[in-house]
Write a structure and sequence with these properties.
It is a single chain. The chain is an all-alpha fold and 218 residues long. It has a domain at 12-150. The chain is 72% helix and 0% strand. Helix 2 runs antiparallel to helix 3, helix 3 (68-99) packs antiparallel against helix 4 and helix 4 (121-144) packs antiparallel against helix 5. The chain is elongated and about 85 Å long. The mean pLDDT is 79.
Length: 218
């Protein structure tokens, strides 16, 4: 597809329009400044792989001597790392596709994740807060498995933070629900207005005839 050339015209107005077009092009291409952030997150996954291997080696070294409780705690730490890695991957894929560019190489890939390309900014927020809730639950469970080392104040604040994540997730979901409902109403209103306009044209009525018959006077 060839890039369509814009005709700005001549004179002062044309020069201003050309300047405006340059600014808009600069702003639009500025989205590529986000790429280093996503590359940094990708490198963060490498660090998590190293930490996962370290934790797994530690678990393997104590597997024969450790109690079930210690083994469970070590497995929860591994699960914590996995959830964090999944969260980072979701942010990388969804953030890049929503704010930078579509990942063309994955369009026809057999291993393309089913959610890829379907998670918008609203869905990304919900997945983010959901992952944080899951991670905080694992942290709480690990603390509860060690009652001898439990600090009451520390556990209290962990519970408060967990509940904050839960409440934030619910509020995000409610706000998105209200926004979706509002968008559906706006679409329905636009569709009804378009149908009235088509009906007026098909029946030879003047434009705005149906609106004049509105008993509410609006």
């Amino acid at each position: 597809m060839t890039k369509r050339e814009r005709n700005y015209g001549g004179g002062v107005i044309g020069a201003l329009k050309k300047f405006e077009g340059g600014i808009e092009s600069l702003l639009f291409n500025g989205r590529w400044l986000l790429v280093p952030f996503y590359l940094g997150l990708l490198l963060g996954l490498v660090v998590l792989v190293v930490k996962f291997v370290q934790e797994f080696i530690h678990l393997a070294s104590i597997a024969l001597e450790a109690s079930l409780k210690d083994t469970t705690i070590s497995l929860l730490e591994l699960l914590d790392i996995v959830l964090l890695a999944n969260l980072i991957l979701i942010v990388i894929f969804s953030g890049y596709e929503n704010f930078v560019s579509k990942i063309a190489v994955a369009q026809d890939a057999e291993d393309r994740p089913s959610w890829m390309g379907k998670v918008d900014f609203s869905g990304l927020k919900i997945k983010l807060i959901g992952s944080l809730v899951a991670i905080s639950v694992i942290q709480l469970l690990a603390v509860f498995l060690e009652p001898d080392e439990m600090n009451t104040d520390h556990v209290f604040w962990m519970i408060i933070i967990h509940l904050t994540f839960v409440v934030s997730g619910v509020l995000f979901a409610v706000m998105d629900f209200i926004a979706d409902k509002r968008a559906m109403i706006d679409i329905a209103v636009e569709k009804a207005a378009l149908e009235l306009q088509i009906m007026e044209e098909e029946n030879g009525f003047e434009k705005g005839y149906a609106k004049k018959l509105d008993p509410t006077g609006q």
